[in-house]
Each structure stands twice: as C-alpha cells, then as structure tokens.
Amino acid sequence: QVQLVESGGGLVQAGGSLTLSCAASGSIFSINAINWYRQAPEKQREWVATITRGDSTNYADSVKGRFTISRDNAKNTVYLQMNSLKPEDTAVYYCHTFVRGSGYWGQGTQVTVSS
Fold first, then answer.
1. 104: closest CA among 14, 13, 19, 32?
2. Residue 26: what pLDDT?
3. Are 99 and 30 spatial neighbours (Cβ–Cβ below 8 Å)?
4. 3-state class of 100 per DSSP?
5. 100: Cβ contacts below 8 Å, ≥ 6 apart
C-alpha cells in the first residue's frame, strides 16, 4: 500500500505562486509515476501533471508554462510549483499514483486564487 499526503495549499492573489507537496510513504519502491489532479467546485476532477520514475514530465495544456512538477527522492516527495496563478486554478489539488493496479489518492489540499 501507498499513502500520499498533500500540503501547501492556501489563498493567493491572481498572479501569485504556491508550491504544493505530496509526501509518499509505504511501498514507494513500486511507484512508477505520480500525478497531480484538481477538482473545482461542481466540476469533474481533471489531470494536471505527471512525473515518472525517470523524471519525465507532462502537463495539461491549461497549466503548461506556469506549473512545474518535480521530485525529491531523498524525501519521497513530489512538488507542484504553481506560478502566474489564475482564479480558474481554484480547486482542491490531489496527488495520485497506481501501484500494482490499485489507485491511491491523497486527501487533497485547497488552493484558492482571488481576483
């Protein structure tokens, strides 16, 4: 099993920055990739970014050029650096991974961007 714990959310003005963290524990040696998703009120959860074991990264078009996903293997933590934030980035942000066919989610962290 894998446990994921997000942190770093908060309230920020448009144009500002935040860095989210996703700390992984448990069977972390089995993790091949970690994803960030977000869910805005009354909207479906959407994929934001992915980082693989080999440090390949991929981003949704809506965040490309503004968000950066990275990892610190020594701390078993994945980060999401968010710059130039917009009100439409307001959502609960979740980290997610698959291990041996089972999906794992964190509890989420709220990001609110004021205009």
1. 32
2. 85
3. yes
4. coil
5. 30
Query: Which residues, at least 6 apart from 44, have a Cβ–Cβ distance to it below 8 Å?
Result: none
pLDDT of residue 79: 97
Q: Which of 26, 4, 1, 2 is nearest to 78 (CA)?
A: 4
pLDDT of residue 93: 98
Side-chain half-sphere CA neighbours of 41 within 13 A:
6
DSSP structural state of residue 15: T
Does residue 1 have a pLDDT over 90? no
- Cα separation, 67 vs 8, in Å, equals 14
pLDDT tens readout for residues 13-63? 999 999 999 999 887 777 889 999 999 999 999 999 999 988 999 999 999
| Beta pairing partners, 94 | 37
Strand pairing of 10-13 and 109-114?
parallel
Contact 66, 80 (CB under 8 A): no
Let me know the angle formed at the C-alpha of 65 by 74 and 3, rounded to the nearest 5 degrees: 35
